[in-house]
Design a protein that fits this description.
- With 516 residues, the chain is of the alpha/beta class.
- It has 15 helices and 24 strands.
- The strands form six sheets. The protein has a nine-stranded mixed β-sheet with strand order 2-1-10-9-11-12-13-14-15. The chain has a four-stranded parallel β-sheet with strand order 4-3-5-6, with helices on both faces. Strands 16-17-18-19 form a four-stranded antiparallel β-sheet, with no helix packed on it.
- Helix 4 crosses helix 5.
- The chain folds into three domains: 232 residues, ANL, N-terminal domain (Rossmann fold, 3-Layer(aba) Sandwich); 124 residues, Luciferase, Domain 3 (Luciferase, domain 3, Roll); 98 residues, 2-Layer Sandwich (GMP Synthetase, Chain A, domain 3), CATH 3.30.300.30.
């Protein structure tokens, strides 16, 4: 990275800006400002003004900036402004409800919380309760107090020099027990991943990314955006996935990054044809398992083999199928250059080829630990620096990584992590519910769907699937809400009294996919 001013990720991005700063960076393809576009010069100017606004709001180097807003170009500029300021970006899923946000504000102790204008009153109350010094708003139409405040501030900002090990972001992830954990990600982690993927996936001048992912997690924010920025390239920006719009826009793009839902719904679209995607260079899938059948059907329809990869909040991207070579259905390819990956038994010893075990890895992409949870960080790290992912898989004789499952029953629904304990705790607190068991079941669109098996309290026959789901929708983000609930007299248990979730998954495995 010769010529890069510091370890600040923004300095790396800046070193890759196109020679013509009037080149388009982002074009809005839906929403209230459809057709609006921004150049790289605009990116520099707006991120500078946002950085100045945050300084006026009291944000300093090393402070956390929590953000729960709708997807917009300004949201990306806020991310870049936070990097420039040397602060730590903390994106929050825009489906989280007020009670969920309360936990993040209490745990992360941000200096600034940026929320949607329509949520301002309720979020200011939360901010006061949890001693957050400042609140600003940012709307989907570039409205809100933050852009208003930034409007007349300087277009120039001296980006703060950072070391590669300094934190750039905290992203909250989840396990199967306890509360969400803040994964601390450094400038060096993000730079390493972006540089590797830019080269590995063959980004080239003129590439146009069709961006329809959310930007509050690794896939849409870091993988898609940072690789495009390192390419000095352009994005067609959709606020949300819409199969009709994707079919309209694919002829203008060369790269699409998506979750399996994108590809199943495109395959179901009558306008999605071989000729439509002939100009496309690359389709990438991640965040949830891609069914091998989807991979094969897509290849037969389009002549393109989807490139599936594997990653997680704690490491960004870890493996990838090759750009040149066989992209094997049902696998996530090889470890990235510079990343070491191994499969181990319960004692942490490496197992032989083809044997299923725990997936562990280390490399320059590995996060710096969990925010304020050193004991959890230590629990998940081996003495030799390998991280225990919690995923279960195997390596085949050709070196491809196969993901078999998750060691701790983590559910990934549409690319979002759901830990069953949180949903179970909510259900168990409802009138008439004695106990619940939450499981993930195969789903053609979402990878996995959340489902629950509930034991009622005696005499509570009025408890129904419909009213429990309705109550869940009031309290939980939609991706956590069970799509089906069944009732049983007793939950199945082993001799130790543990609920046998494997048996429940087996019993209900064809609910969303039909018989094998």
């Amino acid at each position: 990275m010769d010529g890069v001013k510091s370890g600040n990720l923004y300095h790396l991005i800046e070193s890759r800006f196109p020679a013509d700063m009037q080149a388009r960076f982002i074009t809005l393809m839906d929403g209230p400002r459809q057709g609006v576009w921004y150049t790289y010069a605009d990116l520099v100017s707006i991120s500078a003004r946002f950085a100045h606004a945050m300084v006026q709001l009291g944000v300093k180097r090393g402070d956390r900036v929590a953000v729960q807003v709708e997807k917009s170009a300004e949201n990306l500029f806020l991310y870049l402004a936070t990097l420039r300021l040397g602060a730590i970006y903390l994106p929050l899923n825009n489906a989280y409800q007020k009670a969920e946000i309360a936990y993040f504000l209490e745990d992360a102790e941000p200096a600034l919380f940026v929320c949607r204008p329509e949520d301002e009153a309720g979020m200011r109350e939360l901010a006061t309760r949890y001693h957050v010094p400042a609140v600003a708003t940012l709307g989907i139409a570039a409205d809100g107090s933050l852009p208003d405040m930034a409007l007349n501030l300087s277009h120039h900002f001296d980006t703060v020099p950072m070391a590669a090990d300094d934190l750039a972001a905290i992203l909250y992830t989840s396990g199967t027990t306890g509360r969400s954990k803040g994964a601390m990600t450094s400038h060096g982690n993000l730079a390493s991943n972006a540089l590797t993927l830019h080269q590995l996936w063959g980004f080239q001048p003129g590439d146009v990314l069709l961006h329809a992912l959310p930007i509050f997690h690794v896939h849409g924010l870091f993988v898609a955006t940072n690789t495009t920025l390192l390419n000095g390239g352009s994005m067609l920006f959709l606020g949300k996935f819409d199969a009709d719009r994707l079919v309209e826009l694919l002829p203008q793009a060369s790269v699409l990054m998506g979750v399996p839902t994108f590809y199943t719904r495109l395959l179901a679209h009558p306008g999605f044809t071989h000729d439509l995607v002939a100009p496309m260079r690359l389709f990438i899938s991640g965040s949830a398992p891609l069914l091998a059948d989807t991979h094969r059907e897509f290849s037969e329809r389009t002549g393109h083999a989807i490139l599936e990869r594997y990653g997680m909040t704690e490491g960004g991207m870890i493996t990838s199928n090759p750009l040149v070579g066989d992209r094997v259905p049902g696998t996530v390819g090889f470890p990235l250059p510079g990343v070491e990956l191994r499969i181990t038994d319960d004692e942490g010893q490496a197992v032989s080829t083809g044997t299923i075990g725990q997936i562990e890895f280390k490399g320059p992409n590995l996060f710096k630990g969990y925010w304020k949870k050193p004991e959890k960080t230590a629990e998940d790290m081996r003495a030799d620096g390998f991280f225990i992912t919690g995923d279960v898989g195997k390596l085949d004789e050709h070196g491809y990584v196969h993901i078999v499952g998750r060691a701790k029953d983590l559910i990934i629904c549409g690319g979002f992590n759901v830990y069953p304990k949180e949903v179970e705790t909510f259900l168990d607190g409802l009138d008439g519910v004695a106990e619940s068991a939450v499981i993930g079941l195969p789903h053609p669109d979402f990878g996995e769907a959340v489902a629950a098996i509930v034991q009622k309290k005696p005499g509570c026959d009025d408890v129904t699937e419909a009213n429990l789901i309705a109550r869940a929708k009031e309290a939980l983000a939609n991706f956590k809400v069970p799509k089906r609930i069944w009732f049983v007299e007793e939950l199945p248990r082993n001799q130790m009294g543990k609920v046998q979730k494997a048996a429940l998954r087996e019993q209900h495995k064809a609910t969303f996919t039909g018989p094998a």
